[in-house]
Amino acid sequence: MLIDKAMNVLIVDDYKTMLRIIRNLLKQIDFNNVEEATDGVEALAKMRTNNFGLVISDWNMAPMTGLQLLQEVRADARLKQTPFIMITAESKTENVIAAKQAGVSNYIVKPFNAETLKDKIEKVLGHG
User: Fold this and answer.
1) Which of 20, 7, 22 is nearest to 86 (CA)?
2) Nearest by Cα to 48 from 78, 70, 72, 74
3) Are the C-beta atoms of residues 10 and 37 closer than 8 Å to each other?
4) Per-residue pLDDT reduced to its tens digit, 18-77
5) Which residue in 47, 59, 52, 7 sits closest to 29, CA to CA?
6) What beta strand segments (E) does 1-128 contain?
7) Among the CATH numbers 3.40.50.2300, 3.40.50.300, 3.40.190.10, 3.20.20.140, which is that of 9-123?
8) CA geometry: angle at 100 spanning 94 and 104, to 5°?
């Protein structure tokens, strides 16, 4: 199973520290082409101007939540195939159901490490 480590990955979180943590974890597993967005609106704008092989987004953001971002992505014909991993602080069943219904590729519960991230990315990208 070969995953293109050179692909562009977009990470979305309104918490700068979390962006840094995710970027470092991605670097540990050899993903170096990482772009950041601090909210859903910025993320959508970036997605519409660049090609991303993967989006990793936090759930709890304002003004646009990760779930709303996911819904926007899935509603956009050009973006809807983009693999999308949601990061959530709590694995509440209703959150998981809502994310699944919105078309999330996979989700990660905080806190997580590089190994977990790698595992989720492989599950999402290596299914073809």
Assistant:
1) 22
2) 78
3) yes
4) 999 999 999 999 999 999 999 999 999 999 999 999 999 999 998 999 999 999 999 999
5) 7
6) 9-12, 34-37, 54-58, 84-88, 106-109
7) 3.40.50.2300
8) 130
Residue 50 CA, distance from chain mean position: 15
Q: How many CA atoms lie within 13 A of 47 on its CB side?
A: 30
| Domain boundaries, given as residue ranges, for the chain | 9-123
Q: Where are the beta strands (DSSP E) in 38-120?
A: 54-58, 84-88, 106-109
Are residues 64 and 39 in contact, defined by beta-carbon separation less than 8 angstroms?
A: yes
User: Residues for the chain: how many in total?
Assistant: 128
